[in-house]
Write a structure and sequence with these properties.
Blueprint lengths: L1 H51 L1 H5 L11 E3 L5 E3 L4 E5 L6 E7 L2 E8 L2 H23 L17 H26 L2
Length: about 180
């Protein structure tokens, strides 16, 4: 009878394993679907914010090319404002986080559940960046260095003085030597 029980249990085990694998695959697909749904929800919220920013960026003059707004759809979807500033969704996927990358790390410029609050923060950021650009483009005249007049070199005069003093010194040594009787 033990052989009959083993045969029966071995016949049931493959079915149970097969059922367990099927169940695990269904659960994994559901989790993947949830992750995809969350990412789609993040992108949808960022698109809503992007549309709310359209009036702001319509006011930016065409000759200013500081801003390159767009949504990147990587592992973490982001709404880019420029090269260093972007908006991403917080951990709870409902809060907007406006951040800027600096050489000292990432700083949070604004964080809110409300689109108008983030739009106001982006407006302030865009205004500050435009002012920085104006200051950088202002052509400040370089201070001109006053040309100092070179002091006149007394090359020949000094040479002549040295020559005369040398002749006098030689004459003095010769006179001294002749008087001493060398």
């Amino acid at each position: 009878m033990s052989d009959a029980q083993n045969a029966a249990s071995s016949a049931e085990n493959p079915m149970r394993l097969r059922d367990a694998l099927r169940k695990a695959r269904i659960e994994a697909a559901d989790r993947t679907g949830v992750v995809v749904d969350l990412r789609d929800a993040e992108v949808a919220r960022l698109e809503i914010l992007n549309e709310a920013l359209d009036p702001l960026f319509a006011q930016v003059p065409d000759n200013i090319d500081l801003f390159d707004r767009g949504i990147s759809q990587g592992e973490t979807p982001r709404l880019w404002i420029d090269v260093v500033a972007h908006i991403l969704m917080g951990r709870d996927k409902r809060i907007y986080r406006f951040v800027q990358d600096t050489r000292y790390g990432r700083i949070v410029l604004a964080e809110s559940h409300d689109v108008p609050v983030i739009v106001e923060a982006v407006t302030d950021y865009v205004a500050r960046r435009m002012i920085e650009r104006e200051h950088a483009l202002v052509a400040t005249p370089a201070p001109q260095q006053e040309q100092k007049q070179r002091p006149r070199r007394r090359g020949w005069g000094m040479f002549l003085l040295g020559f005369v003093l040398g002749v006098i010194a030689l004459f003095g040594f010769a006179l001294y030597a002749s008087l001493r009787g060398f």
